[in-house]
From TrEMBL:
The keyword Chaperone does not apply. Its main location: cytoplasm. Catalyzes a salvage reaction resulting in the formation of AMP, that is energically less costly than de novo synthesis. It catalyses: AMP + diphosphate = 5-phospho-alpha-D-ribose 1-diphosphate + adenine. Pathway: Purine metabolism; AMP biosynthesis via salvage pathway; AMP from adenine: step 1/1. Its EC number is 2.4.2.7. This is Adenine phosphoribosyltransferase.
Length: 189
């Protein structure tokens, strides 16, 4: 029975990976020359695809007693509130500098094509609350590391970083794991 369940889970994971890969659009030279942008909007525009992604992520976090899903600007805002709703958790927006209306904490970081600063409200989570970081993909890992730093400064317990896609060639997932952040992604690209 256990072997059958493991086979079924592996088949489901393979089906999800294949489905995701077939629905990702690659946009060359965006947002700047030399960058191959992995666009998830075709994946999200199909109701069955969106349901597939949300169900897979909900299954991952169902039994982890997550207090908040922190959505990383901007595409993490699409998934994190859906997960929060499905699992009875809260949503934390992790925004680019200057976008939040209340007092914030800030953290600068490097991107694969520049530098940026993230902010979070000073009351986004309480000490000891369990938080999962959510984004569309992991590239260099800078955004997720900055978000983790912010939430840990507030006393949050960051359980994991979750995303639809890992771009392992850019080194972000290795960098995040080396920094002690567990990761869960639905597929590599």
């Amino acid at each position: 029975m256990v072997e059958q369940a493991e086979r079924t889970a592996a088949q489901d994971a393979s089906r999800i990976r294949s489905h995701i890969r077939s629905h990702i659009r690659t946009v060359q030279d965006w947002p700047q020359p030399g960058v191959a942008f992995r666009d998830i909007t075709p994946l999200l525009s199909a109701p069955a695809s969106l349901r597939l992604i949300v169900d897979a992520l909900v299954a991952r976090y169902r039994d982890q007693r997550v207090a908040h899903f922190a959505g990383l600007e901007a595409r993490g805002f699409i998934l994190a509130p859906l997960l929060a709703y499905e699992l009875g958790a809260g949503f934390i927006p992790v925004r680019k500098q200057g976008k939040l209306p209340y007092r914030t904490l800030s953290q600068s970081y490097d991107l694969e094509y520049g530098q940026a600063t993230l902010e979070v409200h000073v009351d986004a989570c309480a000490p000891g609350e369990r938080v999962v970081l959510i984004d569309d993909l992991i590239a260099t890992g800078g955004t997720m590391l900055a978000a983790r730093t912010l939430l840990e400064r507030l006393g949050g317990e960051v359980l994991e970083g979750g995303a639809i896609i890992d771009l392992p060639a850019l080194g972000g997932s290795a960098r995040l794991r080396a920094a002690g952040l567990p990761l869960f992604t639905l597929c590599d690209f």
